[in-house]
Design a protein that fits this description.
By secondary structure, the protein is mainly α. It contains two helices and no strands.
């Protein structure tokens, strides 16, 4: 069977399909951006945690070396500040994890929409091909009938 010419096919929802593709690209970029922010926040949190541990060891060593309550108080205050920074970093990570989950969900929904539109377009294209085959067959039948009629009249 000869291939069907699909150049005449026009998909009515093509603008919507293109817009959905662009929105999917945007959603995927958003996931990537949030993931990058999350990784940076986790790295910063790990560095901060290492600094807290190192400063706690220094404070312990200073207390053991010289039991000065004034120095100890300032060291504890500094450590409390670091712990506060760590708590803020943890909260930021939790926020970014929530944003990442929402961004992934949005991208998944957009992907489903794009898939649905592609499937619909493929169905419409298949229907167009079937219609083209039907038209082609009808034309062939008319041509055959037109060629056949004069021959029959001469025979009679």
């Amino acid at each position: 069977m000869a291939s069907i010419d699909t150049r005449g096919f026009r998909y009515a929802l093509e603008p919507l399909r293109k817009r959905s593709d662009w929105q999917l690209d945007t959603a995927i970029a958003r996931v990537a951006a949030v993931r990058t922010q999350l990784e940076a926040a986790r790295t910063a949190q790990q560095e901060l945690e290492a600094r807290v541990i190192a400063q706690a060891r220094l404070a312990q060593a200073a207390w053991q070396k010289r039991g000065d309550p004034g120095t100890q108080s300032s060291l504890l205050s500094y450590l409390a500040g670091l712990q506060g920074q760590k708590a803020r970093a943890d909260a930021e990570i939790a926020t970014l994890e929530g944003q990442l989950a929402r961004a992934r969900q949005a991208a998944l929904e957009k992907q489903q929409e794009v898939d649905m539109l592609r499937q619909h377009r493929d169905q419409e294209l298949d229907a167009y091909r079937v219609e083209q085959v039907r038209k082609s067959s009808a034309e062939a039948d008319q041509d055959w009938s037109a060629r056949r009629s004069p021959v029959q009249e001469e025979v009679e």
